[in-house]
Every structure is written in C-alpha cells, then in structure tokens.
Specification:
Rossmann fold; 23% strand; alpha/beta; 9 helices; 2 domains
Length: 298
C-alpha cells in the first residue's frame, strides 16, 4: 500500500512534469532521438525520380512492371533511466534534494517517451544494482517508475556507475537511449569509468545528466565547519575563515568538474549539468536544442 504522502508527491510530479512535457518539450524529444533503423513498409510501382536501388526485382519480374520497396523509420525506442540512489544524492543546500531532482528529470524523460509510444525502463544503483524495472509502455508503468525513484530505500551507500553500465549492457541487448542521472561521485577510478562509458556509448545513445549543488563548488565564510562524507562517513573540520582553505576547496571542485567534463567530451558522451539552485527545465531545453542543431547539420 502506497502511503498517502508518497501518492501526493507522485501526483504532484506527474502534474508538473506533464505540463513541462506539453509546453516545453513537445516535438523536441521526437526530433532529437531517432529510431534504431528502417523497417519495411510496402511495395509500390516505380515512379519517375525513385531510387533505382530500391527496386524489388522479384515483384518486378512477377508483374512485368517495375516496383520498389518502401521503408519507413523504425520509430519505437527503448529509453533506459539509470538513476543514482547513493547517499550523496540525499543532499542539497538549495531548493530540492538531488534525489528529488533526479525523480523529476526521470519523470520528464519518461513522459516524453510514452507520448512517442516508446518503452521506458529503470535501473537504480548505488555500489550495487538496487532495482531493475524492464522497459514497458504506458502511463501506469511510468508512474511506477517515478514512485520507485522517490520511495525506494537503497541498501548501498556508495556510487558505482561502471557497475550500472555493465548491467545496462547485459539487460538491454538492443540499442537504447540511456540517461545516467547521477552526481558522478564515482567510487572507482576515472580511467575505468571512461572505459565503461565508452563501451556503453558505442552500444547505446548515452546521455549523462549530472546533479550538482553550489556548496560542492564554493565554501562560504562561516567559521569552523564539520563536513561528513555521506557515502564513507568520514569527518573533517575546515576553518572557512581561512581564505586559503576556501580557495583550495574551490580549486579542487573546479578540477573535479573539469575532469568530468573532459571525460565526457573525450568519448563523445553528451552531458547536461543540473544544479539544485537553478531551474532544470532550462538546462534540458538547451540540451534538446543543441542536439537538434547538431542532427540537422549532420
């Protein structure tokens, strides 16, 4: 039985994200994400201007008149949502928790998918695979996906994105559009993550959606502060009155974000940076427009 409070949360997200899908993302999703190939539609008589390479010689020989095979784009897609539910995503200093942002972003992508008659699947992960929901269609299925992202209580605390990508490749043999929604505080090596992202990006259309909070990049001047690593439990005390401490903190954060951005760029993985202090819809719209522009020019 779903608690009433959770049902209301799911309902609010459904209403909010459905409106965004209708008002902002209408048509963009369809034009940005293409089907996995072409499928046979019909055979019709040849007309002047048709490509002679499409002639169906068997039908032509049988009827005595030239016929061609007509194909249409195989539109149906499988959309996989890989959602990080580790302890570091239960954090924010502005507006909503990263986990709430992840749920709303997942909802927007899922609603966009079912409006185009695509399937949606879910992989929730920490340093283990917490839950897998196979791809299906329909509103009821999408509401279940949103409910799981909001309500699920994970066993693990750490983040292992490489593990989730391996699992994606095992359970999704055909090409999919796969969104990795995470803060990318990966427990493994950057080189291993790069290898796994590269392999998965060749098999799927992979998009990284990074969740960020302003405090992770800029430490305010507020005296002695005790910080705790949400995933390891490690504690440290920083004197934020010290300008050098704040500067070093900021430089470390900038280095981490640049390494992450360079990683995505080096292997051709599209990425969208989302922050808890800014409207996420705006960043997603920019991403869609960028993809549209690139697909038109290619």
């Amino acid at each position: 039985m779903i608690p009433k409070e959770l049902f209301q949360k799911v309902r609010r997200i459904e209403i909010t994200t459905s409106r965004l899908v209708s008002d902002v993302f209408a048509g963009a999703y369809h034009s940005v994400f293409k089907g996995s190939g072409m499928e046979f539609d019909e055979v019709r008589e040849y007309q002047p201007g048709d490509d002679i390479r499409a002639i169906d010689w068997n039908v032509t020989a049988r009827t005595g008149r030239p016929h061609i095979k007509k194909y249409i784009e195989e539109r149906e897609l499988t959309v996989m949502l890989l959602v990080d539910v580790s302890a570091s995503c239960q954090f924010a200093t502005v507006n909503n928790l990263k986990s709430k942002l992840a749920a709303e972003i997942a909802a927007i992508l899922a609603f966009s998918a079912i409006r185009n008659n695509d399937k949606v699947g879910l992989i929730m992960f920490t340093d283990q695979i917490e839950k897998f929901i196979p791809p299906r269609k329909g509103l009821r299925h999408v509401l279940r996906v949103i409910r799981e992202v909001l309500y699920f209580d994970p066993e693990g605390r750490h983040t292992d994105i490489a593990l989730s990508l391996d699992y994606l490749n095992r359970v999704t043999p055909r090409k999919s559009v796969s969104f990795v929604i995470s803060d990318f505080f990966e427990k493994g090596s950057l080189e291993n993550l790069k290898k796994k992202l590269s392999v998965s990006n060749k098999r799927h259309d992979l998009v990284a959606i990074t969740l960020n909070d302003p405090l992770e990049a800029d430490l305010p001047n507020c005296g002695l502060v005790e910080l705790k690593d949400a995933e390891t439990g490690e504690l440290c005390v920083l004197d934020t009155n010290n300008l050098k401490v704040r500067r070093q903190y900021g430089e470390n954060a900038q280095k981490r974000m640049k390494e992450r951005s360079d990683l995505f760029t080096s292997i051709g993985v599209d990425h969208v940076d989302i922050s808890t202090d800014k409207p996420y819809a705006q960043e997603l719209v920019k991403f869609f427009l960028k993809r549209q522009k690139r697909s038109r020019s290619s």
